[in-house]
């Protein structure tokens, strides 16, 4: 496990896995959270769990590191944010057209 400020991160690994690589993976995930949320804290993760999970999912796939570039992971997350916002706008306009908003 690693602790960052008031956040604790733990990871279960097999006996043959590299502990240093695991610690670096946790550190990289915390860096990604920190860049996305800007000084990540417990409340960021609690109230934005889906974003924290999406960042994790872009970074790790099937228990293996999928993407090592912080820039690529954050670009994918930001692109998803844009798509999600566009869909919300589209739904709002449909509701307004129907007089339900």
From TrEMBL:
State the Pfam families in the record: Clat_adaptor_s
Looking up InterPro entries in the UniProt record yields: AP_complex_ssu, AP_mu_sigma_su, Longin-like_dom_sf
Give the domain of life. Answer: Eukaryota
| Listed GO biological process terms | intracellular protein transport
Q: Can you quote a single GO CC term? A: endomembrane system
User: What Gene3D superfamilies does the record tag this protein with?
Assistant: 3.30.450.60
Q: Which residues form the AP complex mu/sigma subunit domain?
A: 3-81
The UniProt keywords, alphabetically, are: Membrane, Protein transport, Transport
Name its cellular compartments. Answer: Endomembrane system
Describe the family membership recorded for this protein in Swiss-Prot or TrEMBL.
Answer: Belongs to the adaptor complexes small subunit family.
- For this entry, the protein name equals AP complex subunit sigma
Source organism (scientific name)? Adineta steineri
């Amino acid at each position: 496990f690693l602790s960052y400020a008031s956040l604790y991160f733990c990871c279960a690994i097999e006996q043959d896995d590299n502990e240093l690589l695991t610690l670096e993976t946790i550190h990289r995930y915390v860096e990604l959270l920190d860049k996305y949320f800007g000084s990540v804290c417990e409340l960021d993760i609690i109230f934005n769990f889906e974003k924290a999970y999406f960042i994790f999912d872009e970074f790790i796939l099937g228990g293996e590191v999928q993407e090592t570039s912080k820039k690529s992971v954050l670009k994918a997350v930001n692109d998803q944010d844009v798509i999600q916002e566009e869909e919300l706008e589209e739904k709002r306009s449909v509701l307004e057209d129907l007089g339900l908003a």
